[in-house]
Amino acid sequence: MRDVRIAFGGMAATPKRALAAEAALEGSAIHPEAFRAAQQALDNDFQPMSDVRGSQHYRQQAAKNLFERLYLSLLAPDHEVMLHAYAH
């Protein structure tokens, strides 16, 4: 993958790029290990706060789950990918 750009809202005071996650994917093939590395890199990119809309853990896990969805979407672009909310 080249020119990877990833940003999240709701993980910081303002929408912010996930630079460590971008670096984990940059130059890699579409492979599960690359996406697992990007998921782990989110811990370096964000330390979200807990509030009435979601706990820190929930926000971090939801963001990581989006990488799983992206990976599956890239593998099968003609199929809609649905993840069960409680799968992880």
TrEMBL record:
<keyword id="KW-0274">FAD</keyword>
<feature type="domain" description="CO dehydrogenase flavoprotein C-terminal">
    <location>
        <begin position="1"/>
        <end position="74"/>
    </location>
</feature>
<keyword id="KW-0285">Flavoprotein</keyword>
<protein>
    <recommendedName>
        <fullName>CO dehydrogenase flavoprotein C-terminal domain-containing protein</fullName>
    </recommendedName>
</protein>
<dbReference type="InterPro" id="IPR005107">
    <property type="entry name" value="CO_DH_flav_C"/>
</dbReference>
<keyword id="KW-0560">Oxidoreductase</keyword>
<dbReference type="InterPro" id="IPR036683">
    <property type="entry name" value="CO_DH_flav_C_dom_sf"/>
</dbReference>
<dbReference type="InterPro" id="IPR051312">
    <property type="entry name" value="Diverse_Substr_Oxidored"/>
</dbReference>
<dbReference type="Pfam" id="PF03450">
    <property type="entry name" value="CO_deh_flav_C"/>
</dbReference>
